[in-house]
Amino acid sequence: MLTNQEIADDLLSQFGDKIAGFEEHHEIMSVFTTVETAKPMIEYLYKHPTFQFQYLTDLAGIHYPDNKGGELSVVYHVHSWTNNHRLMVRIFVPIDAPDVPTLVDVYKSANWMEREAYDFFGINFVGHPNLIRILNIEEMDYFPMRKEYPLEDATRQDKIDALFGR
Amino acid sequence: MPFSADNVQRQMSEDITTQNTLTQRNQTAVMGPQVGNLALKDGVPIVSEDGRELTTLNLGPTHPSTHGIFQNILTMDGEKIVSGVPTIGYIHRAFEKIAERRPLYQITTLTDRMNYCSSPINNMGWHMTVEKLLGIEVPKRAQYIRVIMMELARIADHLICNSILGVDSGAFTGFLYVMQKREEIYEIYEEMCGARLTTNMGRFGGMERDLSKEAIRKIREFIQSFPPVMQEFEKMLNRNRIFIDRTVGVGPVSQEMALQYGFSGPNLRAAGIDYDVRVMNPYSSYQDFEFDIPVGYTGDTYDRFMVRNGEIWESFKIIKQAIENLPEGPFHADAPEFYLPPKQEVYRNMEALIYHFKIVMGEIPIPVGEVYHAVEGGNGELGFHLISDGGRSPYRLKMRRPCFIFYQAYPEMCKGVTLSDAIIIMSSMNVIAGELDA
């Protein structure tokens, strides 16, 4: 049975100071790393003889407007079926130059997932064969899942947090 | 229990396709090269390697045989598909964005509208995700009721897919026959939540209501009456010569390809990989039940059909076990802060009124944190990645929709097949537009 500690130790010995930290949420470990290291790390995890993270479960973009210099985040969620173990690799990129190397040559399923992340967050996957919008119309000139586009009328008075003691 | 397709003469379907090509060639000779819309690139017709002019065909967005709104721009050589470009997003409703402004309980209704052929699975997958975040322990009875409803939903989902596959290959009878059983499943839904299609079934912490006597009667009746219908449906198609000729060897997916393209669910298992979330990461007491995972060999349309048929029987087995061993006890967790109190209580009891108000206003204490929870949906691993910053709605909710991920393999699966086979391939993959676009 593979444990998060084993993976963490192995990654630390391999990538050392390129790893910014680890987090664990409900048994799934997240590895925080730099943009340049993410792809070599995922390839390493893919080819590793015992880990075998050969399935890309999901790829999510997240926008953290307050995290200056790393406003956009990409979460790679990989799964090792041989060990039944899940792992997330996370990176942060600045919003004015959101360039991330593509994973399409490692997992073909990353193709549409990256297009989706581009469509909603404007993350530029360098080397992607066909990086165009996928769910929204092509004429759209903004990235709608970013936090600066509120969903409802911001002048609404009935949902002010202060009124509810938050 | 792998299915044996060895006796099937795969040669037969190859003969038919060669014949088609021959007829097509003769037609071109008679009618000249100007048949259909020529595929143009910079005003010049695109020609195939052996010098034949190709045509462009717009399949969709609204085409009766695509069961939803998909567009495929196909480049065709006669009746053979050379390449295809899928366009999706026609029913994109921005669920992930809407979810960032809604209290958690209101997101349940969004999940209904993803895979609308098996909405209870989506609902309960979402409920389990939130329960994991909030740390609610669900009583055994509620878990069993959930299993019953989820497996009924899986049967309904697979019945639709398989019977529609019959319709697309020219057999309408089976479809009409099993629809009757799907109707009975929908009546059980009605008994459990009042709705049929977009169910909004259950609550955080358990079910909204207990299994009523009527519901138990209906489930038992279903258990009695379902096997003969299903057997007859299988008898009609499983060894049907026309059906086998149409499906065997059509759109095969190898194990490597399935893994690379992120397949999950029945489509993956048809390729021979026995990954099932219910077994790998059991949730809602699936470890209590005895069931098998049907797998196929080649991942072609016939295998996908057979795997779904096998899964219907396994789901049926689970329902039987669950209803026989249904534990006594409460049908929801004792978590007044999160579980909406019954209306009678709200009118008479101060605490219930307060909790009712707070829950409806979305004022439940949500911890900071994040959680990923996956369930085995009708089409594969349905995952919810919920990131909470302690506010009343999620900071980010990423839904892993199985359809969205495996549908990108469709152009590769269609390469070189005829148009009619491409329709069957799509039908057997069970691509649901609502889940694809979300």
Characterise this structure.
The complex is a heterodimer of chains A (166) and B (438). With 166 residues, chain A is of the alpha/beta class. Chain A has a single domain (4-143), classed as NADH:ubiquinone oxidoreductase Nqo5 subunit (Beta Polymerase, domain 2, 2-Layer Sandwich), CATH 3.30.460.80. Chain A is 22% helix and 28% strand. In chain A, the strands form two sheets. Chain A has a five-stranded mixed beta sheet with strand order 1-2-5-4-3. A two-stranded parallel ribbon of chain A has the order 6-7. The model of chain A has no long low-confidence stretch (mean pLDDT 90). With 438 residues, chain B is mostly helical. Chain B folds into two domains: 10-87, no CATH class; 95-437, Cytochrome-c3 Hydrogenase, chain B. Helix content of chain B is 49%, strand content 11%. Chain B has helices spanning 10-31, 95-99, 104-112, 119-134, 140-168, 173-193, 213-237, 241-247, 255-260, 266-270, 277-280, 301-324, 343-348, 350-360, 402-406, 410-414, 419-429, 433-437; strands at residues 40-41, 44-45, 55-59, 71-77, 80-87, 368-376, 381-389, 396-400. In chain B, the strands form three sheets. Chain B has a three-stranded antiparallel beta sheet with strand order 3-4-5. Chain B has a three-stranded antiparallel beta sheet with strand order 6-7-8. Chain B has a two-stranded antiparallel ribbon with strand order 1-2. Chain B is globular, with a radius of gyration of 24 Å. In chain B, 48% of the residues are buried.
The CATH first-level class of chain A comes to Alpha Beta
Q: What is Rg of chain A?
A: 18 Å
At the fold tier of CATH, the topology name of chain A is Beta Polymerase, domain 2
Strand order of the largest sheet of chain B: 3-4-5
What is the terminal separation of chain A in angstroms? 42 Å
Q: How much of the sequence of chain A is in beta strands?
A: 25-35%
- Biggest beta-sheet profile of chain A: 5 strands, mixed
Order of helices and strands of chain B: HEEEEEHHHHHHHHHHHHHEEEHHHH
**Largest interface: chains, residues each:** A-B, 37 and 43 residues
How many alpha or pi helices of chain B?
18
Q: How far apart are the first and last residues' alpha carbons of chain B, in Å?
A: 34 Å
